[in-house]
Amino acid sequence: MKQSNQWLTCANGVTSIRLLLAPLLAWAVARHRVELGAVVFILAVATDLADGRIARSRGEASALGGVLDHATDALFVSIGLAAYAFRGATPSLLPPVIALAFIQYALDSRALAGHPLRTSRIGRSNGLAYYVLLGLLVLRDAVEGGGSDSIFLYGLGWVLVLTSLVSMVDRGLAWTSTRRAPDLHDGEKEDQSLH
């Protein structure tokens, strides 16, 4: 695939649908349009499940597509959870922590230089858990008609703030240790050359 056409793929088009759905979900949550919120969330999950399969089946899988997929996921859940945070249903700290965790993830993976994203177990679990929390909030609204807040879901939001921060510290420590490793090897070479 030519570099100039990497953005213009069917899979990236499917991924981009979530970009359009994110503000629609936020509007639905803010206006207590619970049916619309549920439909938007289901469409977002469907596009997330479909884009990777489409990319692989059409030979469109690329590091760029992976970055777009993960960035779109982070944006979708951040915007959706921000709308719920505005309503007081989840901690207001969670959406910016999600955004910062993704930025660190992309930079640490050197994704902007075309490298594939490097996931960690806790980061992957957090990514799924963000969708689960958002889905549970949407489901609660659909069942209760946008009713009462849940202490359990609010608490789950705080757990995700903490696990996201742990993941960021873990990635930071791993990045730091990889930056020190060449220095250690250079020092060992110098010691060996002295003997």
Task: Summarize the structure in short.
78% of the residues lie in helices and 0% in strands. The protein is mostly helical and 195 residues long.
Number of strands: 0
Shape: flat
Category from helices, strands and their pairing: mainly alpha
Major sheet: none
- From the N-terminal CA to the C-terminal CA, the straight-line distance is 52 Å
Number of helices: 6
Mean pLDDT: 84
Radius of gyration: 20 Å
Characterization of the model:
The protein has helices at 10-30, 34-57, 63-86, 94-108, 121-144, 151-194. The protein has 195 residues and is mainly α. It contains six helices and no strands. The longest helix is centred in the last third of the chain and has 44 residues, at 151-194.
List the helices and strands and how they pair.
Blueprint (H helix, E strand, L loop, with lengths): L9 H21 L3 H24 L5 H24 L7 H15 L12 H24 L6 H44 L1
Helix pairs in contact: 1-2, 1-3, 2-3, 2-5, 3-4, 3-5, 4-6, 5-6
Short key terms for the protein model shown above:
single chain; 195 residues; Four Helix Bundle (Hemerythrin (Met), subunit A); flat
